[in-house]
Amino acid sequence: MTSQDRINWLSIIVGIISTLVTMISMMPPEFYFLRVQWEIFFISMAIFLLAISIKYFIKRRSLIIVVEEPKNPITNFTAQLGNPQNPGLLSKEQRLAQIQAGKNPYVCGSSLRGNSAVFYGRGRELGGILGVLGNPEKPGSVSILGERRIGKSSLLNQIYQMLSAADNVVTIHTTMQNWRIDSQATFFTQLHQTISEALQIDSDSIDDYTGFRDFIRDYAEKGYRFVLMIDEFDKMTENAYFNAEFFSNMRALGERHEYQFAYVLSSYAPLSDICHDGGIQESKFWNIFGTCYSLGLLAQKEAEQLIQEPMRQTLERDFEQTTEILRYTGYHPAFIQIVASEYWNAHYFNFAPNQDAIQETLYNYYQDLWQHRSQTERELLRKIAQHEIPQDNAILMTLRQRGLLTHKNQLFASFFEQYLIEQ
Fold first, then answer.
1. 78-294: what fold?
2. I want to staple 164 with a disulfide (CB 3.0 to 4.6 A). Which of 29, 86, 385, 417 is the partner?
3. For 144-155, what is the mean pLDDT?
4. Is the pTM of this model over 0.70?
5. CA distances (Å), 361 to each of 138, 244, 315, in order?
6. β-pairing, 78-81 with 169-175?
């Protein structure tokens, strides 16, 4: 029986009861005793059926609300299908031209969006990664390493922007920072759903690796390529639902040519260390990453341009305190954004920069850098702060790559040296 049939039957029954109640009310006086009893009975029945009807309509309305919910729930992924007609990654001059005069251009506390006007440097990484992902046989996988706030997320955003112009490349982006995964099924369901939306296709839901693998293979045969970008990959291996079997499967997906599937992962630690610490070393997942970039400091010219060019564009005059900012920040991109933002406000609103606030903010970041150093690294950094010149070794090379030292084995900023001396 359909919902409409139920409504019709209820209407008929209520109508019959109403008619009987009316007839009883018209009985002659000698049948009043019957009239009272039957009238009470039918009125009670009418109230009872009315209650059932109300309950039914409430239930039916709740069902309607469920049906009207969006077909696809919100996912933790975003995806795009590349098209050569998209602008892709603009040149520095094009991005800089988008800055509006009178507005602070610097970004503090969040990653730089794609085509950000204050994204400087990283040309070597962008060019190399584009070459690896554009391999004619199969896109290769890339690992990006670096300290917190060194610019890993910002670089991923530029890569995502760059791939928006890559023909038939489906790029999927996610960050593990706020993931709340309750199963592998959730991961594959959301990943499949997001890719289907980018391809603008209707596809039955998939909630396991086998189904997802077959789905990717079918569309790879149609000429599509897939790049999965995962920011803060370290946190993924800390999730118990992503076990050795999961990463073995994901390795096969990124390794075999028929799937045309690749990864770009950012993490604090090397993938081999992460996978061993996470107890998933059997998967050998890290072995498919032939290219690895460690993000360090900007080049001197890039750091100076990051200060001077946006200042000139927005303040409409030359900026002459570049050296003063670099004393605090060195060539560290995020620290430049923080201090340059304070100096921009001071110049635009005509007040003196708050040196105490700048130092306090940087001290908090420096403390985080210090806490994540090994004892051996701390000893070397202390010696360098006291102007001792240690013999070059692998640890010094790591500190240079991660942006704590310059290529001359000097601390990245004068103010950081002051912090270490005070420690």
1. Rossmann fold (3.40.50)
2. 86
3. 97
4. yes
5. 45, 41, 24
6. antiparallel
